[in-house]
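Narrative progress, year one. The postdoctoral researcher (J.K.) led the effort to move from monomer predictions toward full complexes, under supervision of the PI. The following entry was the first complex the group processed end to end, covering 874 residues in total.
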Amino acid sequence: MEKWSRLSLVAEMIRDHISLDGIDRYLAETGVQSSDFVPVEPCDFAGEIFAVDGSNVSICNWSTANVNLIRAGYAVYRGRDWKRTVITFDDVFVADTMLCKNMFDLYLEQFFGLNGVYLKESDLDRLSSYYRELQEYVAINEALGEAHAGDIVLYDGSFDVFELLRDALAAVFARAREKGVALLAVAKSSSLFWGEEITLPFVQHTSTIGSRLLPGAAWYVSLKDKKVDAGQGRWNGETYVVRFCGQSEHAFRVDAPSFLRDEMGSVLGKLAAYSCSSECLGYPHALFRAHRDIRITEQEGAAVRQKLMAHLLESGMTHSEIRMLMQDFHDILEMRSGF
Amino acid sequence: MATTQEENQTPAGESLLNRKVIVSGDTTYKIVSKSVTEYHFTVPFILPDEERVEVGQIFSIKDQGLTFLARVLNIEHSSNYDGHWDTTMKGTQFFDDDQIFNRVIAEPLGCINKRLEFKKSRTLPTKFAPVARAEKEEFKFLSQVMGDIEVGYLRNGSRLVEEIPVALHSEAMDHHMGVFATTGMGKSNFMKVFAASCMRLFARGESKFGLLIVDPHGEYLKGKSKDLVKGLVHLKRYREGLACYSTNKQNASDPGVEELAISESEILPQDIALLYDWSPPQRDALEAISRILDPANWLEEIQSPEGMARMMQEGFKDSTVNVLVRRIKNELGRNPYIRKRSSLANILANLQNGKVVLVDIPRMSDRSELFLLSVISRYILDEYKKDEKEGQESRKNCLITIEEAQRVLGAGSNTTRFESIAREGRKFGVGLCAVTQQPKLIDKQLLSQFNTLVVMGLGDRNDRIQLEESAKQDLSSMDIEIQTLEKGEAVVSTLNIPFPVPARIHRYEDYLRRLEKEDKQEGLITRGGFKPFLD
């Protein structure tokens, strides 16, 4: 019984604190004003939209290292027409702290002219995430290589990245500016928050308020000088909350390099025109396609796992050795088959 | 979609990049699954009207040296997305036509090899093998397996394949034929087309069987002039293939139409027996007639006081004999064609020569029609049995048409005469052509003896089930197609053609004009058919 009374308290707290009754407190505590909600006019354009995404599936892991299948690439649209999807990386990555530094250095040097990476001890748990992000930046770099002035390159994620890869990001920004290409990051989920006594979801509340202030319209809000921590100053750009389609419930965090500040309305108008598909209303359709084309499914992961197993057996390892080395005890608890 | 590898494309990172580029390509009209017994392929979810896929259409799948043929059973909305994402109207339109499609479920018919031989398929096409609507080239092999009695053109969905006529085999006719359709779907038109083709075969000296049609509605002989519907006599070019008998004096006055007469001596007590429900004593009395009275003169004798007295002397009650006599008198009164002379010998001779024999009995009652059909059928079967014994090899087989066949071939009916033709007629070269709109009422065992089925629109599910369960070829998968057949469309199932063939039966009046114009010696089927006349 005690458990359920606790649940009822949580429900009450959500209602009182997270559910948004009025907008005054939000405006006061975030510094966002009604006038900050800028309508976006959807506008056709003849250029191309590139949407970059990546995917990462664990193949196996043992206590000190793990193997991941990583894929990165981009989808290209002109208007509503899908043109192509380019896969730039599709391979396994062995996340071993002793071995993988070279894997980063090769890409950082060849694609971004950087001197390599320094991996701190705290980074070691997230090696495969870093590596996937690195491959996504390589994909952005490739997309920028194909893009022409006026085109748009979208990235599925945020530019408030790990310190380790900020130099690579800076190189990508520089290339986008040089080519006259609009580069934006659109995050499907965001940890942005506001509130002085409790952390309240900023993007969701901004979306709710935008619906009241500009019903049925696409809009954006710049977070410049607002009391919301979006990593300002850690990377050379600005964060916005954007609703791409007036008929949709959803708004998204959008990051953009500083050089785009004056043309955000125009760039978002072009995106709004192509965020109204029946497949995925309210989200830039190119990103929807990139997600579906580039994602690694469970079945694909399982197939690679089986192939690895076959190689290990061919090389003379026994089932029991493989299990001993690789089976995660969680798999045993969950009664999952595997190594 | 097409995938290309672009290794080392960019100068930077030459050794690191291994780009795969997936570009737009044909993503539909490809086999995507499923098994040897069921193929699935995709088509665009939106198509112009003339390219829409329809149930019953036949598609071809070219896969290396084989061409698979498959018939569409059903079409479903489908996509590469999971769940019910598309059940709410939202957004402006679909963006990714390559991800949203219709899934077509098709039944394999078989495959054609390089030598143009058609075989049942024991394998399935390679995944993503291209699919296209079958055209005349893929159907060419059908021309080789078609018979000699042309009835229509091959139909692919709603489209005609005019180059491929659908023709039944004369050789299969003693294996019985069924023509099934609800009212107004074209049974009579089919029978006239069928008869016209038979007349043509006779005129060309190619007839292999005689066709008997007893027409109680008076529509086959001259048609209906007010509706511009033509009859068999209008096929002048092949008129020699038709022998007509009529109970109608006006019709019988036409040259080439003989007034029908059946001799009293050719009527047997069992012909009367099938007309009524009899009590056991009455049935005993009927069966005893041949023993008690002169078999050649029993009809006259039993009506006389002496004949009745002889029946009663044998122990039959006067009331029983009186019922017999009263009913016999009724039948003789109703059937004025019963006379001293008889047309039966001529009818038989014409059938044995391979002609179409039309017995025109307009405005005759149901009971009288059955009586007449029974007398003629019994006579024919008896004579064919005799011929068989005597080894008369020159005579042609015979096909007896029964309209509203459910009356005499129904489960539990007492008309064993027709049942016996269905069961044993084949041995003697006598086949039945059962025409009915209610196949569900025909005895299932009898129906299973029918090797040729012409199925036109049947709305009643029980009718379709009855046919599916009895047909020699599997019709069960064609349920939706049979249900949706339009007037004049048919599915023809016969043993000599490897799968049930969708057909559009010729409109008789068009076919007539075509036959009237053709060179008598020119083949219909062998030269690949005609273009239809455009009205």
